[in-house]
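Regression report. Comparing outputs from two consecutive submissions.

Submission 1:
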Amino acid sequence: MKQPICGAPTQSGKRCQNKAVIGTSRCSKHQGALSAYGVQQRKKKEAEAKMKKIRKKR
């Protein structure tokens, strides 16, 4: 299986040609906390933590 390229827009206006991190669509440079993937992961973790907290109260 071929590893996909990042494809994030760069400052020069071209697409990033670095290899994407396995399991994501972005390279390590473009996979920051504010990227769509980072935000999605953070929201998922926050929702799981909230559910654990609710379960403990019961």
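Submission 2:
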Amino acid sequence: MTCPNAFALEPLPSETCALTFNNGASLTVPVARTAEQMKHGLMGRIDPAPGILFVWSKPAIRGVWMKDTEVPLSAAWIDSRGKIQAVLNLDPLSREKRSSFLPAIAILELPRGTFESIGVHTGSSVQAACLPRR
């Protein structure tokens, strides 16, 4: 018997990106570039590690929500210069859309508490070859 709300767990994207922050912290995360990859993100995962990076080719107001995501996450909006505009906590299963206040080129979603544990916050900067250069 299957649950009527069950869905197939999509694999994380195979492309990965190494991120280096201005405080020396570093992470390697899968990169979502296509609409389908972005639609699934970390949805349905019990363990959201190592996180995911959503990347667009042009900056714009960008948003996320937590529909079908059962674990607490935090998200950082990254502008085209590599500066983190904001870090927000996201509540599991919330349908509230959380958006950037300024145009963003990427959103980094990590398990809640990861940004704090690596010392990354609003105003930090990140370098990564996978981010479009402006």
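Expected: both submissions complete independently.
Actual: both completed, but the second showed a warning that disappeared on reload.
Relevant detail on submission 2: DSSP finds two helices and nine strands in the chain.
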